[in-house]
Design goal:
Elements: E1 4-9, H1 13-24, E2 28-34, H2 38-47, E3 52-54, H3 57-61, E4 68-71, H4 78-87, E5 91-94, H5 102-115, E6 119-121, H6 129-139, E7 146-154, H7 170-173, H8 175-186, E8 190-200, E9 208-215, E10 220-226, E11 239-246, E12 250-255, E13 259-265, E14 270-276, H9 282-295, H10 304-323, E15 328-329, H11 332-346
Parallel strand pairs: 1-2, 1-4, 2-3, 4-5, 5-6, 7-10, 8-15
Antiparallel strand pairs: 7-11, 8-9, 9-10, 11-12, 12-13, 13-14
Helix pairs in contact: 4-5, 5-10, 8-10
Keywords: Oxidoreductase
Domain GFO/IDH/MocA-like oxidoreductase: 133-251
Organism: Thalassobacterium sedimentorum
């Protein structure tokens, strides 16, 4: 079984997630780690001292031994790095969104699709075992014809000012994952929707948003996402999952970021299954990418087109909510109290 050589670029949180997954995989050799921050390079050196460490992307792009590049930087610099990697004939795993503007993403997609190289984007739900199993149950006919998809992802996530600014507010940065999930399940493109936002703590952007509408094939959807779920609650809680209703049955899934619970209610089957949530599934992404390089078949990889569509639609839903006078509840003083509380928790 062939082992491929990877260069990891951008050693933030996701960069280290991917680095660890590559190190643990028997399909990958970490050839290079690239970042402008010396402290991050030193931290990476502790994990994989056999790699080459550099602040210059050209070092790994000019090395013919490097098969692929993982681009884990923020969105504002991704288009430049991704284009340079493709010009160097390297396959790419990239974080999402692919650029810090929708126009930039669509322009970059043209380059990607004309390159003849494999580019997979970390839309992590597409690598989740539980979505694979739920979709197999639906495909078996157990719930009849799919009619309604409802997705919920509400957590005490990043607060305003805490980071990810090139990726945008929560419904774009995080919500695009769930816009993608609904489209994936429906097997169709979005047709129309209404979106309601809430500008918590009087922040200018909605920090909670719920959208509902229909796909071109008639399947209807509801997506709710926000980083407002009990920010200062004594005990941390989340509301995350999906419910898929058909003409004959249904299946629903919930998770608490640790354990997944799936409830199957089909015409012949009623069961409950639990399993590990698996965080960002970077290990699965790494394995599937190697398999795709083996076979030339990238159908199991989350594609750049899937990512750009999810990014575009989530931004349009966010813009809709902002244009229709999203109300503001809460104060900036409350926001500052929450930010201080989160600092203490991290400390």
């Amino acid at each position: 079984m062939k082992k491929y050589t990877i260069g990891v670029v951008g050693m933030g949180g996701m960069g280290f997630r991917f680095l660890n997954s590559f190190i643990e995989s028997d399909r990958w050799e970490v050839g290079y780690v690239c970042d402008l921050n010396e402290a991050r390079l030193e931290k990476a050196r502790d994990l994989i001292p056999t790699a080459m460490f550099t602040k210059n992307l050209d070092d790994l792009l000019n090395d013919p031994a490097v098969d692929a590049v993982a681009i884990c930087t923020l969105a504002d610099i991704r288009p430049k790095l991704l284009t340079e990697a493709l010009n160097a004939k390297k396959h790419v795993i990239a974080e999402k969104p692919l650029a810090d503007s929708i126009a930039g993403e669509w322009e970059l997609l043209k380059t990607i699709e004309a390159s003849g190289l494999m580019v997979a984007v970390d839309i992590f739900n597409r690598n989740a075992w539980y979505h694979d199993e739920i979709q197999a149950f639906i495909a078996s006919g157990e719930i009849g014809e799919l009619a309604i998809v409802s997705v919920d992802h509400q957590t005490p996530g990043l607060m305003p000012t805490e980071g990810h600014s090139p990726e945008g507010p929560p419904f774009h940065d995080c919500g695009m994952h769930y816009v993608d999930v609904a489209r994936w399940y429906a097997g169709s493109e979005y047709k129309e929707w209404h979106a309601q936002g809430m500008r918590m703590w009087d922040w200018e952007d909605p920090w909670w948003l719920s959208a509902h509408g229909q796909f071109e094939n008639g399947v209807v959807f509801n997506i709710t996402q926000g980083f407002v779920y009990g920010q200062m609650a004594k005990d941390r809680t989340v509301r995350c999952g999906i419910e898929v209703i058909g003409t004959k049955g249904l299946v629903r899934m919930k998770h608490d970021m640790k354990t997944v619970t799936i409830e199957y209610h089909g015409v012949n089957t009623t069961k409950i299954k639990q399993g590990d949530y698996g965080s960002k599934k970077t290990d699965v992404m790494c394995e599937r990418f190697a398999e795709a390089l083996d076979t030339g078949d990238d159908s199991r990889l989350p594609s750049a087109r899937d990512s750009v569509i999810a990014s575009s639609v989530s931004q349009e839903m966010l813009d809709f909510a902002k244009a229709h006078a999203a109300p503001a509840i809460g104060t900036r003083d409350e926001m500052e109290s929450i930010l201080e509380h989160r600092k203490q928790l991290k400390a």
